[in-house]
Design goal:
It is built from 15 helices and eleven strands. The protein is α/β, with parallel strands linked by helices. Helix 2 (44-59) packs antiparallel against helix 12 (255-289). The strands form three sheets. It has a five-stranded mixed sheet with strand order 2-1-3-10-4, with helices on both faces. A four-stranded mixed sheet has the order 8-5-9-11. Helices cover 50% and strands 18% of the residues.
Length: 331
C-alpha cells in the first residue's frame, strides 16, 4: 500500500515538474519589445508601429508585445539609434539621412534630387534595390525591416520666401545631424545648423535659426508653421524613413518569429503609406489656412547644379556610385 502511494506521489511530482518546465519554457521566449519614434503619438509612423505590434501580438498568440515610445520619450533620434545598436532599444523608426552616418548605402537615399518622383522612390524601395539596402544594415549592427514614406522635403523660412539660390544666402537653416545634409545646404548657399528635431521649434521661435527643411506633416504637426511663414517647394530630397531592429533583439527570436516580425513590418509599411497620404493632404491645407505663403515658382535646375559636388564626393566610393546608377535606371 505504501509502495503504491509513493509511486502515485512520484508520478504526481513528475507531472507538476513537467508542467512547470513547460510554463517556464513558454515564458522564456515571451517578451516585450520597446520601439522608439520621435514623432507625435498620432503621426503615421507611430500608428504604423502600433499596427505592427498588433499584428505581432495576434500572430504569436500574445507571446510578444511591442510598446511604442513616441514624442522623444526615449531621446532624440541620434541617441536612440546608438541605444538600438547597443541593444538597449529593440525597434527604431528613423530618417535615412541620420542612420546614413552609420550605414553607408542608406545615405544614398537622402541624396538631393536623386528621385524623380514619389512613384520612382517607391519602385526603388519595393524592388530588389530596397531589399539589398535593408540587407546591408546587418554589417553595421542593425536589422533592416521596412521602409516608411516620408514625402518630399522642402525649405521653409521665417525671414523670406526662397525662390532662388540668392534667396538662401545668409540664412541659417536647421538640418539633421548628418554631414551629407549639411553639405547640401552649404552647397545651396545657406548656413547649415545641425540640431536635434525636438529643438527646432524653440530655435525658430527664438530666432536662433531662420528656417529648416522638412515635409508637410513635420512642418505642421510640430508647430513650425506658426513661426516660419514661407514654405518653398524645393522638394530637394524624396527620402524615406526606415524601421530597424537591434541585432540583440533579433537574435532572441526563433526563425518563425523572425519571419512574423519581418512580415508584420512590411504590412505596417503599406498601412503607413495610407495614413501618410491622408496626413500630408491635411497638413498642407492647415498651413494654407494659417496664412503660410507657399512658393511654387522655383527653377530647380540651378539647385540641382549646385549639388553636383555632393555626387562627386559620394561617387568616389565605387559601391555608392554603382547604387546611384542602379537607382537612376529604374523606370
Amino acid at each position: 500500500m505504501l509502495v503504491y502511494r509513493r509511486a502515485g506521489l512520484s508520478r504526481t511530482m513528475t507531472l507538476v515538474v513537467a508542467l512547470l518546465c513547460t510554463a517556464v519554457s513558454a515564458s522564456a521566449f515571451a517578451r516585450e519589445f520597446r520601439a522608439a519614434d520621435t514623432q507625435n503619438e498620432d503621426y503615421p509612423t507611430v500608428l504604423a508601429l502600433r499596427y505592427m505590434g498588433r499584428l505581432i501580438a495576434e500572430r504569436t498568440g500574445g507571446r510578444h508585445q511591442v510598446t511604442v515610445f513616441h514624442s522623444h520619450q526615449l531621446g532624440e533620434e541620434k541617441e536612440t539609434l546608438e541605444q538600438t545598436r547597443a541593444g538597449a532599444i529593440d525597434l527604431n523608426r528613423t530618417n535615412v539621412a541620420l542612420i546614413g552616418t552609420m550605414v553607408p548605402a542608406v545615405k544614398v537615399l537622402a541624396m538631393p534630387f536623386l528621385f524623380r518622383s514619389l512613384d520612382h522612390l517607391q519602385k526603388v524601395l519595393d524592388g530588389p534595390i530596397g531589399t539589398d539596402i535593408l540587407n546591408s544594415f546587418e554589417a553595421f549592427g542593425f536589422v533592416g525591416l521596412a521602409f516608411y514614406d516620408s514625402g518630399a522635403r522642402s525649405i521653409y523660412s521665417r525671414v523670406r520666401p526662397v525662390r532662388s539660390l540668392d534667396d538662401l544666402r545668409g540664412l541659417r537653416l536647421r538640418v539633421q545631424q548628418s554631414e551629407q545634409m549639411s553639405d547640401m545646404i552649404r552647397a545651396l548657399g545657406a548656413e547649415p545648423v545641425e540640431m536635434p528635431y525636438g529643438q527646432v521649434l524653440t530655435g525658430l521661435a527664438n530666432g536662433l535659426i531662420d528656417g529648416a527643411e522638412n515635409n508637410w506633416p513635420s512642418f505642421v504637426t510640430t508647430g513650425h508653421y506658426k513661426y516660419a511663414g514661407y514654405y518653398s517647394l524645393t522638394q530637394h530630397t524624396v527620402s524615406p524613413e526606415v524601421l530597424v531592429m537591434s541585432q540583440k533583439a533579433w537574435a532572441s527570436l526563433s526563425p518563425d518569429d523572425q519571419k512574423i516580425f519581418r512580415e508584420a513590418a512590411q504590412h505596417s509599411s503599406l498601412y503607413m503609406r495610407e495614413k501618410w497620404n491622408e496626413l500630408e493632404e491635411r497638413s498642407r491645407k492647415r498651413a494654407e489656412e494659417a496664412g503660410v505663403k507657399i512658393v511654387t515658382d522655383i527653377d530647380r535646375k540651378p539647385f540641382e547644379a549646385a549639388t553636383a559636388g555632393i555626387y562627386a564626393k559620394a561617387e568616389r566610393d565605387p559601391a555608392i556610385a554603382a547604387l546611384i546608377e542602379r537607382i537612376r535606371k529604374v523606370e
